[in-house]
Predict the structure.
Amino acid sequence: MFFKKNIFFIIILLLGAFLRFYKLDWGQGLFAHPDEYHIASSVARLSFPNQMNPHFFSYGTVIIYLIYFTQELIKYIFSNFNSFLIGRFYSALFSTFTIFIVYKICATFFTRKQFTLIAAFLVAITPGLIQQAHFATPESAQIFFLFSSLLFMLKFVKQNKILYLVIASISLGLSLGVKVSSIVLLLPLIIAAIIILYPKKLSILKKLLKFTGLTLIIIIIITATFFLVAPYVFLDFPAFLSNLEYEGGLAMGRFSVFYTRQFINTVPVLFQIEKILPYALGPFLLLFSSIGFMFTIINLIWKPKKEVIIITIAFLSLFISNAFLFAKWTRFISPTFPFFAIFACYLLDFFYSKNKSISKLLTIILLIGTLLWTAASFSIYLRPDVRITASNWIEENLPGNSIILIEGGNMIDIPLRGNFNRIGFDFYNLEEDALTRSRIAIGLEEANYFLVQSRRIFMNHQRLPKIFPKTANFYNALFAGKLGFEQIQEFHSYPTLQIANWKAEFPDETAEETWSVFDHPVIRVFKKTKQLSIGDYAKFLE
């Protein structure tokens, strides 16, 4: 009876699971996300029970411990199992569970079940969530615990049962144990307590006392949960605080590092709208959800609804706290992605009560448009990793003993095989380090080929020629052919739609860089066609 009654949701859940679990080993052993390495290194440092301090506080220990103990358990079955794959398995699992949580959230205030199903379906096919599920990073787990907390907040304001407040607080404590940035969801949890007490016929003093009691319950439970799942935050507090100050300074732009240069002179919110959301959501879901959010705000003014108040405050808490940071990585804003499905369907649900035909037409447009974008984005995982493709081509087509100049710095080199001589320099230091410029000039004079492994260096510096004049000038000269190198091959794996002989590619290299560089960078191969002297090359670096 359960399966018959919920058959559509089960199909949606299975589809979401397939999209998340499919090809978790993408990269063919080339794990290109630097945070995956940080987490794997933290796992490798653990040894129960004597050494459980990960000495890594950029992320919480929930995922680190989960990977470690899973790895220890399966050692009895397999002699060795890759911690990267375990981490990716849990990312896919938590992301799949989030589909169920969003379905239950929508069921608390949507008037029609079909729109709870549509919201769940949109979450199941959201490209940004599918991508995060393919990384052994904490975001998928964080999103699950955040939305679990939100679900029980809604149940609390609807049914006024203290148990739901307790579970919401535990879930938020677990989310803090994944990433401390989850603390922003404390605001809607506190407001949930206010909403419960506001209509009661109690004196102001009694309301204040009850609110204080509920707030203490919330804080005590969150803190206790946080301590249990991330004990070394407290036991090694100076190290945690030092890391928090560093990460906070990095996020706020109080100091500059090479891998945040893409955010220099960018405008909050506009950057996310232009560089992240169209790719992570698809243009149709972004359009419908933006209108849906504006409608939600207007509707709240005229007809306040406590569940919608909590959801709106939760969304704004997460969106504003991340959108206005200096560092605007896709993973920072990813906890907001499920909200866009909720707001889009809230709009469709409203239209249905006014005009069923318009609502159905809009629903079809939204679903088809989002499905097409998901199919295009998912095609990346249907093809071999572009770095492997590039490496194979180089091995087959470049002469043996070729000297290949390669950009280094904050990226995983493509796995060049064959009899090649590699020269690698950190091109991020080109601007301020005269020794690096001298070495690059020598490398250019010696090299037969120049390999540009992604957009990370050239695109960020060409955009800011006044700040990075030497680096911008160098890449301008390279692409103009003035360095004596000519591009002979380009490898990319853009989101693609293909039906028989018809094919449409959607270049996304100009999106926020982490959207593409970790799983489908554009790789360019340049061949030397004209020999210049070291002195000539040095002039282009000045």
Notes: The longest strand covers residues 485-491. The chain has two domains: 26-382, 386-540. Residues 356-382 form the longest helix (27 residues).
